[in-house]
User: Fold this.
Amino acid sequence: MATKKSSSDDLLAPVTLAVGQEDLLLDRAVREVVAAARAADADTDVRDLAPEQLQPGALAELTSPSLFSERKVLVMRNAQDLPADTIKEIKAYLDDPAEEITLVVLHAGGAKGKGLLEAARKAGAREVACPKTTKPAERLTFVRQEFRSLGRSATPEACQALVDAIGSDLRELASAVAQLTADVDGTIDEAVVARYYTGRAEASSFTVADRAVEGRAAEALEALRWSLSTGVAPVLITSALAQGVRAIGKLSSARGGRPADLARELGMPPWKIDRVRQQMRGWTPDGVSVALRAVAEADAGVKGGGDDPEYALEKAVVAIARAARMRRA
Assistant:
């Protein structure tokens, strides 16, 4: 759900200002206001307007008193692109908004059209932040909030697995959360997410690798068997295992520093630096060597050097998980 920056929770405030570039959150901000208006008056007139529909004079016509005194919601999209004369009219309207009319102004933020933003804020508009989510941690927070807003519980591992499987599209993430909550009773865990979404080969192979380098042998084997049963190629799994172990080795031998600095040095995205730092607890240089040998043997096994690729992968997963616990042992 979009984050409210204003202290006011009045969805029927005269003006709601939705600021940002995340389409899903902007649309939700509009839907919330429309739903509240129609709850108050089922005959509410909703006008969804693009900048080209708001030429000078249009606002006065739209906000003029209705013969039937009906409630209205006026949605102004891409307000940063409105003509200067229309922005001037809106600013004047903000000083004396009409009763029974709710204005929803959607603005991308930034310098363009900043005067309208400042005027709406000065007028006490209810504000909703709709920032574009660019970081994995933000998407993870979004998924957790989605489950919470639907009154459901999901484990941290399940939330992370869903982000890994779906990617960066918030609409797809929201849809996936809605599907899981509708179809599954009780707490949603990683196994549930796997049943629905491990058809995505890259996500499932990296789930195997993540669990293995974290020393969670049983979970890694479960993910491995599920991946193989859904048709994931063994070579993708050995590749993911190799990447996981090499990342541990690279970061353990690197000098300390900020994630951004290490990311440049090691050729990894900053979010991966944070994840690998959590995974490398328990690892030793000897453990990395053991794990790399296990990956090499598995790679040979799945490429024709052995009779049973699945056994080769299981053996590698167990060896890597044990290597991850060497320091703790």
Summary: Residues 141 and 159 are 9 Å apart (CA to CA). The longest helix spans residues 285-305.
